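Troubleshooting log. The previous structure file for this entry was overwritten by mistake, so regenerating from the original sequence record. Sequence copied from the archived sheet and checked twice against the printout by T.R.
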Amino acid sequence: MIAASISHSPISYAELEATLNISQDRLSNALAELQKLFLFPKPRIVETEQRYDINPNTKRLVNLVEEASDEYRRIDLDYRAVVGKLPSVGNSKIMPLIRQVQVNLLRQNFVEAERLLKEGLERYPNDTELISHLGWVYRKWDPFRVTDARECFHRVWQFNGANEETYKHWVKLEIDAEEWSEAIKVADRGLQKVRKNRNLLYLKGFSQVQLGRDLLRRVQYERSEKTLKDSLVTLKSGLESPDVELIRERPVKSEIHRTLVEAAELLQDTKILRSYLAEWEKAFPDDVYRIKTTKRLHVKFRALALA
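Regenerated output below.
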């Protein structure tokens, strides 16, 4: 129910299977039981594909009740990973093609997904949405085709593409490669196109913290301190960014709080660390990771425990 409620559009069987990471038998049995209780609909055809469309009221209730739970957060992150939070498609003519690409990726049929997109680009040359999706396919490929993915995302930027998801995938590609400086640069490119975007601000701040950590290990203290302090500014901007989708953005907000605390810990500044821990607690009082982190830091920094 959570997986189907997180998805804004009707969800496919393949997406449910990949998100929940369970066998087809278990999923089929679970769906059958939910359908007996009239909690889950029968599938209907959406753009030539069978999809499950949850009642809006049921979906709203599930999100409101479960959004603070660890299970909700895990499933939300897994769902994003499965669908790659595909960029929105403005060109309705390519929507069926994109759906086919998505299904093939869920089945790990990377060659077919690539073929479909290349055929699409022959019909719609330099379409930034198709190029972006091709980069997404290369990023999901097993093994990753990092160079090809990077070239696709770079082309989208050269063609002035302004879709948030393109830059998110590009930044995450650089993060996976631990290219922290490049990740920061890519995030800045995205923020020039999509200003004050919370996701890109978080990814930039996260990359700044990792770069600061690396500089600290290399005993480059001044550069590390500056980078970490810059990350605080970036991450605070992410928290101040206006909400677009309140429920969907809660996990990102939680990660921003976590990363602010991580940066303050690396700076060994107990004053701001105390402040960020208090803000994290106010926003997410039941966050299990927050509780564990607070206990650990009180042991590490006696000044926090004495406050």
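Strands lie at 11-12, 44-46, 49-52. Archived copy saved in two places this time.
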